[in-house]
Amino acid sequence: MMKITEKSDVYSYGVVVLEVLTGKQPIDPTIPDGLHVVDWVRRRSRDRAAVLDPALQGRSAAEVEEMLQVMGVALLCVSPTPDDRPTMKDVAAMLREIRLEREDVANVDVLLKGGSSPPPHHAAAAATATAAKLASSSTSSTPPYRQGPSNSNSCSSSSFSAIYSSSNKAKSPFG
Prior knowledge:
Elements: H1 6-22, H2 37-43, H3 54-57, H4 61-77, H5 88-113, H6 123-137, H7 158-164
């Protein structure tokens, strides 16, 4: 019998995030060869944007990039080896960092245009915030705040590496 642990909860969370981003069920009749959504996304690693739900693919490039970063977090969560999975505290921190990068870029855009308040949140931004809230609500300890300076002009994996390098033995899906 399988023991329920924090690492199995993290795996389940990753599956749920992949379901939301792809619009697929874990075992979906539209996925070829009867693959599980996790395996399907892994096999399509060269073109991850193609696995996004078609309803999400028409979003702006920045929003698609944000969703792909969240997908990267989800793939960390569904690592085959439990020891390689992040804690929920780390997941919440990574999702929060994605949101902070987006907010930093939005604030810079507003300042450059001479405005006084950031633009309204879009659906992808709301989804990231919701994912972060869900992740942080599943742990009793307070997640760390933003660690170190963020390069808000690029949507790279540096945030994940900075947060994740101090955590367990986890490997980033970004290389």
